[in-house]
Design brief:
alpha/beta; eleven-stranded mixed β-sheet; 335 residues; globular; 19% strand
Length: 335
């Protein structure tokens, strides 16, 4: 006959067996979440779900698509939503994928790769951005005032979804976020550069903004990880000239903006902004990546937005100073 000790072991095992399903259910309830109403898989546009896992003292987070593609939360600081960063069942580094990433890096070596260097992240608000004043940029405080007034119809009192695309060090993002805290909306900072996203987070925390309020995404403007019509307003400051695939990026912005009043505000450089600057070859977005794009005129920018799907009467472009272009576009209304 079984000893008292072995009987206790059997009883304990039975109790643990009965308790295990309930414990699993509790854990599933703790970590389960509904799909994100704004973000989407950059590969196929399917819904994204937050995933959290705890291994001992280590907590890992990711965003997982309905198709099982997993996008990491890098160092707990930003979600990496580049299509090439997603990993699904059977994914791996193949020669074809490696060659594709090398080609992409070469094609965008100036427009995007230089912004991934720690030196530029350090210098961006320590003189780099300030030199834009010589080209006619109004300065961040005046730019913020105009942006917030333009966004007010769709994002007042913290409502709606506002995106700062190519956020850099968070110069505009921090102001947008600080002005919207307490509302029911979301304010997202997006950039291709991991360095810039880390700098955005560092400066935001240094400014006293709550960590829980920060939403930082690594993504490509030409393949936005967002649902159709999910964004109320998007800002892209001093950015259009550095996008390797500008035309595709503008089309993507048009896609993710809400069709009944979505707003886009951008600043960029016109030819003549600095002595000796010339425009790049039209359509440069696919070739070489050797230079930034200084636009010929306000009309060139206007036509680019119209070609991307913005209504002609909803697009306005004006020149400030020697070579700053201020772009405003509205879907379903006049700019």
């Amino acid at each position: 006959p079984p000893s008292r000790f072995s009987a206790m072991l059997l009883l304990s095992a039975g109790l643990l067996g009965l308790a295990r399903p309930a414990a699993k259910q509790r854990l599933a309830g703790l970590f389960s979440a509904s799909e994100d109403p704004v973000l989407a898989c950059p590969r196929d546009g399917s819904a994204l779900f937050p995933e959290r896992a705890i291994y001992g003292r280590t907590r890992r987070e990711a965003r997982v698509s309905a198709g099982g593609v997993r996008y990491p939360v890098a160092d707990g600081e930003y979600v990496d939503l580049l299509a090439s960063s997603g990993r699904g069942d059977g994914d791996g580094i193949t020669p074809g994928r490696l060659a594709e990433e090398v080609r992409e890096a070469f094609a965008t070596r100036t427009q995007t790769q230089m912004f991934r260097t720690p030196v530029l992240g350090f210098l961006y608000e320590r003189g780099w951005r300030q030199q834009f004043r010589a080209a006619g940029f109004p300065g961040i405080e005046k730019e913020y005032d105009e942006v917030s007034a333009f966004f007010e119809p769709v994002a007042a009192q913290g409502r709606g979804v506002v995106v700062d695309m190519s956020c850099g060090s968070g110069l505009m993002y921090r102001r947008l976020l600080a002005g919207r805290i307490g509302g029911s909306g979301r304010t997202l900072a997006c950039d291709y550069s991991e360095v810039m996203l880390k700098e955005t987070r560092r400066r935001a925390l240094e400014q006293g903004l709550a960590p829980a309020a920060l939403e930082l995404l690594r993504c490509d403007v030409a393949q936005l990880p967002m649902r159709d019509g999910a964004v109320d307003a998007m800002h892209a400051g001093a950015a259009l000239h550095s996008w390797p695939n500008l035309e595709k990026g503008l089309s993507e912005i048009r896609r993710v903006l809400r069709p009944d009043g979505g707003r886009f505000f951008a600043t960029t450089f016109l030819r003549g902004a600095y002595p000796g600057t010339t425009s790049a070859t039209p359509g440069q977005s696919g070739g070489g990546g050797g230079s930034f794009r200084f636009f010929e005129s306000e009309e060139e920018l206007r036509q680019l937005l119209i070609a991307a799907g913005f209504p002609p009467d909803g697009v306005s472009v004006r020149r400030e100073g020697r070579g700053c272009a201020i772009v405003k576009a509205v879907l379903g209304g006049a700019a």
